[in-house]
Amino acid sequence: MSRGRLRVPLTSLAPGLLPLPEEAAAYVVRVHRLKAGDRFDAFDPERGVEAEVELVDLPARAAPVVRVGDLRAASVLPARRVTLVQALSKGEKMDAVVRDATELGATRVIPAIAERSVARPEDAAGRADRYRRIAVQAARQCGRGDAPQIDVPTPLGAILTEFAARPDIAGCVLDPEARAPLRDWLFNLSPEPEVVFVVGPEGGFTSPELLQCERSGFARVSLGPFTLRTETVCAAVLGAFLVFLPPAG
Q1: DSSP state, 195?
Q2: Could you give the domains of the chain?
Q3: Residue 151 parent element (H or E)
C-alpha cells in the first residue's frame, strides 16, 4: 500500500469490477474529486486485506464502478492481540476511547456495563454499530489495514466469566490504589498470550468489582501517582504496550 495515497474502507473486497457503496462513493468522488482512471487503495476492515483500486466509470445516475486488483494481506496490522474492556462512560468519551484504541493497535474492544457506569445503553446493538463506524474511520486515518472487533455493551460480570475460562490470556485491571505498577507487569509477560486490560468508569470500579476481576485472573496494576480520566487511560496503556510489549511469537 502506498503511503500518502487515498485509502478507502470497503467490506467484502474482491478482485474485479465493483459498484462503490454510497458512503465510499461520496468520499471518493465528492470529497476527493477523483475521476475515471484515478487510483486509490482499498482495505477490508473485517478481513485485514487490501488492494489497489482504479475508478473506471462515473455514470450519471448509478454508483461509480471501480476495478479491484489482486488482494493481499494488509501491510499494517497489529503485532499481537490486545483486548480493551472499557466501562461505558458518558457523552462522547467512549467515541474517543474507540478511536484511540484503534489507532494504537487494539484488536478487540468490549464496552462494559459496570455499577458506576453513567451511560446505560437502551440500544446496545445500535451503540455497537456506532463504535464500529468510528473504528473503521480511525483505521482509515491511521493507515491500519483492519479494524478492531467491537462487541455490544455487556455486563462486566459476563465479560470476566468469559476470560476466566481462557488460559491463553494475560489480564490486568487498572486500579489507582494498586501497589504493582503496570510497567513491572508488562516486563514479566511472555510473547505468547493475548493481552486483556480492564478500565473502569468515572469514579472507578467498586471494591466488589475489583475483587471479581482478581478472582477472574486479572492482576491489579497502577499507572502511577496521577489520577487519569477514564478516556485517557486507554491511550496511556496502549502506548505503553506499543513500547514495551514484544510482538507475539
Answers
A1: E
A2: 7-73 (2.40.240.20), 82-244 (3.40.1280.10)
A3: none
Q: What is the DSSP letter of 163?
A: H
Please tell me the distance from the alpha carbon of residue 46 to that of residue 145, in angstroms, as a whole number.
9
Residues 6+ apart with CB under 8 A from 55: 28, 29, 34, 35, 36, 37, 38, 39, 40, 64, 65, 66
E strand or H helix that includes residue 241:
helix 230-244
| Dist. CA 117–CA 197, nearest whole Å | 17
- The C-alpha atoms of residue 59 and residue 1 are separated, in whole angstroms, by 28
- Please report, for residues 105, 174, 180, the alpha-carbon distance to residue 142 in angstroms, rounded to integers and kept in the order given: 10, 26, 33
**Which one, of 66, 74, 77, lies nearest residue 1 by Cα?**
74
pLDDT tens per residue, range 131-188: 999 999 999 999 999 999 999 999 999 999 999 989 889 999 999 999 999 999 998 8
For 95-116, b/e burial (b = at least 16 CB within 10 A) is bbbbbbbbbbbbbbbbbbbbee
Encode pLDDT of 181-229 as tens digits. 999 999 888 777 789 999 999 889 999 999 999 999 999 999 988 888 8
Q: Cα separation of 84 and 91, whole Å?
A: 19
Residue 15 CB burial class (10 angstroms; 0-12, 13-18, ≥19): exposed
| Cα–Cα dist 230/223, whole Å | 12
